[in-house]
Task: inverse folding
């Protein structure tokens, strides 16, 4: 059976609503109102399916939901938010996992978002990071690993030892909540290497161990750091409860000059004369 285009149904109802209420709202008010109308549509009874959109998907098994998702993609019918939210609410059904091995980037990105941060998907996630995967998909995978970083910790440490996606693994480890000397040492030693200084300072700030303060305070004193590095180091110090108030002169730093040019005030257009 052809999947139901709930978004198409909503668009038709919305077109009628816009016509009936023309001139009642500003463009900005419509931008705020349309998402509310869509959510309300999810709980609206539709005679054609004898249920609301949300109820329609709620009655399905995990397998039926994933089959429905694939049918939408195969038939080039928009995947409604109601279908995606119902799959997400099932906490990574096993039928999603095979999709994490597919070669279609659109489907793969969708599968990562639907699988979420459940650790049952982590084996596939780490395989995606190891492989020749699109950078946007890797970023999406890392976001899910960061959301459950404690469960990803040991594999992230293993990847670091194997020198696989070092920067991404440091980013994941920076979100580990349970205090772990191995994680702290890895993050601190990575910062001391002097590479990607701004990012690695932010990892220490995210991890939140105040023992990193002396190292950060020592590094910020360096005359070789640029404006952007200084700014990130200062943020990391403050995030850990420290303070650095020494004045620094970056007036000849190209990064600082570019920053200033981006911050320049742009005057408004002069009002037209009446």
Result:
């Amino acid at each position: 059976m052809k999947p139901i285009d709930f978004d198409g149904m909503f668009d038709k109802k919305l077109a009628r609503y816009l016509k009936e209420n023309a001139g009642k709202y500003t463009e900005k008010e419509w931008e705020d109102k349309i998402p509310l109308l869509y959510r309300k549509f999810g709980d609206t009874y539709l005679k054609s399916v004898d249920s609301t959109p949300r109820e329609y998907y709620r009655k399905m098994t995990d397998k039926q939901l994933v089959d429905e998702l694939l049918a939408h993609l195969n038939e080039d019918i928009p995947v409604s938010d109601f279908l995606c939210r119902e799959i997400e609410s099932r906490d990574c059904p096993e039928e999603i996992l095979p999709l994490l091995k597919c070669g279609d980037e659109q489907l793969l990105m969708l599968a990562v978002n639907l699988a979420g941060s459940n650790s049952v998907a982590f084996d596939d996630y780490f395989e995606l990071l190891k492989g020749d995967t699109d950078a946007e998909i890797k970023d999406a995978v890392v976001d899910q690993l960061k959301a459950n970083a404690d469960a990803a910790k040991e594999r992230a440490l293993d990847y670091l030892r194997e020198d696989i996606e070092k920067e991404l693994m440091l980013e994941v480890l920076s979100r580990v909540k349970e205090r772990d000397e191995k994680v702290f040492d890895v993050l601190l030693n990575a910062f001391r290497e002097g590479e990607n200084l701004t990012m690695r300072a932010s990892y220490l700030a995210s991890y939140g161990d105040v023992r990193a303060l002396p190292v950060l305070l020592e590094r910020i004193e360096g005359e070789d750091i640029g404006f952007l590095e200084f700014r990130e180091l200062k943020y990391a110090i403050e995030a850990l409860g420290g303070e650095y108030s020494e004045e620094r002169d970056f007036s000849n730093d190209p990064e600082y000059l570019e920053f200033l040019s981006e911050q320049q005030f742009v005057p408004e257009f002069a009002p037209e004369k009446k």
User: Anything to note?
Assistant: The two ends are 62 Å apart (CA to CA).
